[in-house]
Amino acid sequence: MLNIKTIDDATINQRVYQLNLGPQHPSTHGVMHLLLTLDGEVVVKIEPIIGYSHRGHEKMAENRIYEQYLPNPARMDYLSGMIFNHGYCMAVEKLCGIEVPRRAEYIRVITSELNRIASHFIGTMDYAMGLGAITPFLWGWDDRENILDLLEMISGSRLTYSYGRFGGVRNDITKEFYDGTRKFIERLRSRFWDYENLINQNVIFIKRSKDVGVITKEDALLYGVTGPTLRGSGVKYDVRKHEPYSVYPEFKFEIPTRKEGDCLARYQVRMAELEQSLNIIEQALDHLPPGPVRAKVPRFVTPPEGDCYVTFESARGAAGFYIVSDGTRVPYRIKVRAPSFSNLFVLTKICPGHFLADIVAIFGSIDVTVPEIDR
Amino acid sequence: MNITQLPYIKEIYGFLGSDVMSGLVGLLIIAALVPLNVAALVLAERKVAGHIQLRPGPMEVGPHGILQTLIDAVKLLGKEMVTPGLTDKPLYWLSPIIVVAPAFVGFIPIPFSPLVQIKDVNVGFLLIFAFSSITIISILMGGWASNNKYSLIGAVRAVAQNVAYEIPLLLSVMPIVMMTNTFKLGEIAQAQSGLWFIFYQPIAAIIFFIATTAETNRAPFDLVEGESELVSGFHTEYTGMRFSLYFLAEYTNMVIAAALFTTFFLGGWYGPVLPGAVWFFAKTYFLLFVVMWMRWTYPRIRFDQLMNFAWKVLIPIALVNLFITAIVLKVI
Predict the structure, then answer these.
(1) Is the confidence at residue A2, as pLDDT, over 50?
(2) Of the candidates A160, A175, A291, B35, which lies 20 to 30 Å from B170 by C-alpha distance?
(3) What is the pLDDT of residue B83?
(4) CATH number (domain holding residue A96)
C-alpha cells in the first residue's frame, strides 16, 4: 500500500507555511514564481524566483550579426517591443555614428509612444484585474486593440515589432496610419471619462489601492527602481526629459508624479502618462517633417572597435543597451539593463506585513514583464 | 379516470397522505426547475458580462448563443473527474454532493404566488437559513480534502465570511418578523398587499442584500474563489461534474437569495395586471441582474475589509434598526 508521509510534526507545529505563487498562476503575468512565507494570510517573507523564461537573448547576440539581432529586443519586453527596438537601433547608430533623418526620428517617437500607451493599458488594467475587476481589463484591451491595428498597419506585426532599422525605419507611414492615429487620439480622449467613472473613483478600488505597498523615496532609489513606479514615489525622473534622446526635447510634455508611493499612486501615474503620450503623438503628427525615412547605410553595418551605452525610457522604466564591439560584423557582447529586474526586487522590501491578496495587487502595480527580467 | 382511484396509487396515497404527495411532486418540480434555471442564469450572466465588457458574449451555439450552456453541461458531463493524489477521498467525494442538497431544500417554503408554494413551513425562512449553513460545511470539507493550500485558504475564508454575514442577515430580517408576527413566508408576502416592506425597512433591505451577496459568495465578496489570488479557491482541484455541482449550488443559492429578498421586501407576488408568479419571477430576475451588474463592475474587497465591514458596520446598523423598529411598533 502506498504510504507517503507528506507533512511531519515539525511542519505542523510551525506557525508559518510556504505558498508557491506561480510559476503557473493566473495573476503572475506569465511565469513569475513568488515563494511566499505566510502566517495565516499575512506575508512574512517573499522570495521572487526568476529564470523560467530565460532564452539567452544576450548570449544570442554574440552569434549573429547586428541586423540579425533586430527581432530580439522586441522579444525581451514584449509589451513595449517598439521602444526596445528603438533603443537597440539607437545604440548601434551611436556605435557606428549614423545620422538618422528627422522624419524617421518623428515616426519612431510616434510608434514608441503608441506602444507605451498600449503597454500602460496592460499595466493599469491588469492591476485592476488583480483586484478582481475584470471589466476594466477588457475595456483597456479594446482600446489597446486599436493601437495594435495601427502598428500592424505599418510594421506588419502586432506585438514583437522589428520596425526600426539602423538609420531610420523600415518604411514610411501611410495616410491610413496618419488618419487612424488622429482618430485614435480623439477616441481615447473621450474614453478617459469612462475609465474615471468605472475605476478611478470606484470606492472598493481606492480602498484596495490606497496605502498598500508603499515604496518610500529612499527605498525606490536604493533598489534602482525606475519608470512610473519611481515617479509614483515622488521622484521626478524620466529619461526622455533628463537624458534626452531622439527628438524628445522638441516636444512639450509633463512628467506626472505622485508623492504617496502606494499602488494607487503608481496607477495614477500610468493613467496620467497616457494623456502625456497622446500629447506627444499629437505634436509629432502636427510637425511631421518631410524627407526620407532611412539614411544611406551599408547593407551590413560594421561598427568600429569600442563600446557604447544608450539608455531610454521604456514603459517600465529606464532601460539600456550596452554594446561592446570588437570591430567585426558580430557584436562582442550586448548587455541589457532591464527595468523590470530592479523594479521586481523592491517587492522583497515592501511586501512583508501585507495580506496575500495585496501581494497580487502590489505585483500588478509594479507592472513587470517576466521575459524582460529573464531575457 | 381519477388517477388516485388506481389500486396501487390509492394505497400509496392513503398511506402517505396528500401532504407528502404534494411535497414529492413539488420536489420533483424543483429537481427539474433548478438545473434549467441555472442554465438560463449562466447564459444571462455571460451575456450581461459580455455587454458590460463591450463584447457580444457567446454567439456560436444556437441563435445568439442561447444553447451555449447546454453544450457546456454536456462538455462537463463528459469530462474526467480527476482525484488528485493524497486527497481525503471520502470527504473529497462527498463535498460536492452535500453542497447541492440545501440548494434544493431552500425552494420548499418560497411562495411564488398564493397558490404556487410547495409547503408553507411554520419555521419559514429559518429552514432556508439553517440549511444554507450546511453549504459552508461542504465547502470546508472540499477545501480541506483537496490537499491544496489555495483550496484550504479559500475554505477557511468561506467559513469566517459566512459566520460573520449570517448575523446581519438574520438581524435584518427580524424587523419584518416583528411587523408581521410570523415566520411563514407566504404570510409575510401577504402582509405586503398594501405598501412593500422595502419602504418601511429600507436599511434592513440594503443590509439583507449585502449579506446575501456575501453569503452566496458573489462579487465583490467572492473571496472564497478569488481567482486572482487563490486560483479558484476551494474548488481548485475539482473537475467535471463535481465542479459543476458547486456551480449549480452557487447559482441556485443566488436564486433563493433573490427570491427571499422579493418575498421580504418587494411584495412577493403583488403587482398589477399580470399573474402573481410572473411578477415574482420578474422581481427575482431583476435582482439577479443587479447582482451580476455588481460583479462585473466592482473589484473584490480584501479579507480584513470584509470582516471589518460585517462586524463594525453591518451588525451595529442592523441592531440599531432592530431596536428602532421594536420601539416604533411598541409605541404604535
Answers:
(1) no
(2) B35
(3) 83
(4) 1.10.645.10
Full domain range(s) for residue A36: 9-49
Determine the Cα–Cα distance for residues A103 and A97; give it in Å rounded to an integer. Answer: 18
A42 — contact with chain B (CB < 8 Å)?
no
- What local confidence, expressed as pLDDT, does residue B192 receive? 82
Smallest CA–CA distance from B48 into chain A, residue = A135
pLDDT value, residue A324:
92
Contact B39, B70 (CB under 8 A): yes
For residue B213, give every residue at least 6 positions away whose Cβ sits within 8 Å of its Cβ, in sequence order, or none: B220, B221, B257, B291, B294
A16 in reach of chain B (CB within 8 A): no
Of B52, B153, B228, the CB nearest to A132: B228
Helices (H), chain A: 9-13, 57-60, 71-76, 81-96, 102-130, 135-155, 175-195, 203-209, 217-222, 228-231, 239-242, 263-286, 339-344, 347-350, 356-366, 370-374
Question: How many residues are listed for chain A in this entry?
Answer: 375
A120 and A143 in a common domain? yes
Which chain A residues are Cβ-neighbours of B303 within 8 angstroms? 41, 355, 357
Q: Select the residue from B302, B303, B312 to test the A interface by mutation, using most A Cβ atoms within 10 A.
A: B302
A90 with A233, same domain: the answer is: yes
Residues of B with CB under 8 A from a CB of A: 49, 52-55, 86, 147, 149-150, 153, 219-220, 222-223, 226-229, 231, 296-305
B129 contacts B166 by C-beta, under 8 angstroms: yes
| Closest residue on chain B to A207 (Cα) | B301
A220 and A197 belong to one structural domain = yes
B149, B297, B300 ranked by CB distance to A131: nearest: B300
CA nearest to A89, candidates A78, A79, A99, A80: A99
Residue-wise pLDDT tens digits, B108-154: 888 887 777 777 778 878 888 888 888 888 888 888 888 888 888 88
A339 with A362, same domain: the answer is yes
Give the mean pLDDT of chain A: 86
Q: What is the DSSP letter of A197?
A: I
pLDDT in tens, B278-297: 888 888 899 999 988 888 88
A17 contacts in chain B (CB < 8 Å)? 149
Residue B159 confidence (pLDDT) above 70:
yes
Looking at the DSSP bridge assignments, the partners of residue A323 are A308, A334
C-alpha distances (whole Å) from A327 to each of A94, A95, A257, A301, A306 are 14, 10, 43, 10, 8
**Min distance B55 CA to chain A CA atoms (Å):** 9
Give yes or no: residues A45 and A110 share one domain: no
pLDDT band at residue B320 using 50, 70 and 90 as cut-offs: very high
0.85 surpassed by complex ipTM: no
Task: Cell numbers for A220, please give them.
Answer: 525606490
The reply to whether A84 and A139 lie within a common domain is yes
Q: Is residue A169 part of a domain?
A: yes
CB-based contact B223 A360, cutoff 8 Å: no
Which chain B residues are within 8 Å of A25, Cβ to Cβ? Answer: 231
Q: Give the rounded percent of residues in chain B with a pLDDT score beyond 90.
A: 3
- Residue A34 in any domain: the answer is yes
Residues of B in contact with A135 (CB under 8 A): 49, 52-53, 296-297
In a domain, A4, yes or no: no
- CB nearest B226 (choices: A198, A205, A357): A357
**Shortest Cα distance from B299 to chain A (angstroms)?**
4
Secondary element (H or E) of residue B230:
helix B227-230
Nearest C-alpha of chain A: how many angstroms from B223? 9
Q: Which residue of A has its CA nearest to B229?
A: A357
Nearest by CB: A132 against B55, B299, B303: B299
Do residues A163 and A274 share a domain?
yes
Does A3 reside within a domain? no
Same domain, A180 and A32: no
| % of chain A at pLDDT higher than 90 | 9
